[in-house]
Specification:
The chain is an all-alpha fold. Helix content is 60%, strand content 0%.
């Protein structure tokens, strides 16, 4: 999974394997090997790639489909499954209303 995600992120960023290798301070052969899942990058490379691309290591490893990194200490609300897009928008609007009301 990490190979597929790394390749996708690299291509989306418009980078060649050579360019990514230079950014991560490793050789092109290593990037090629990671992207083909022939070898797994060490943790330090996983972290460096996640930081560079602005994704979580969990995303790189395939543990989550979400690329967003969550802020430590921030408040997040887990929504119940099955909510429609309209219901989610209603909840967002209500949260915005509460935030605005509390600023006063």
């Amino acid at each position: 999974m990490i190979g597929e995600r790394l390749s996708e992120l690299r291509k989306d960023a418009g980078l060649t394997q050579d360019q990514l290798a230079e950014i991560l301070r490793i050789n092109k052969h290593s990037i090629s090997s990671y992207e083909r899942d022939k070898s797994e990058p060490p943790d330090v490379i996983k972290i460096a790639a996640a930081v560079y691309f602005g994704v979580s290591v969990d995303y790189l490893l395939g543990l989550t489909p979400y690329t967003e990194m969550f802020e430590p200490g921030a408040d997040y609300l887990k929504l119940p499954p099955g909510l429609s897009a309209e219901d989610k928008e209603t909840l967002k609007s209500y949260a915005d209303f509460l935030a605005h009301r509390n600023k006063k």
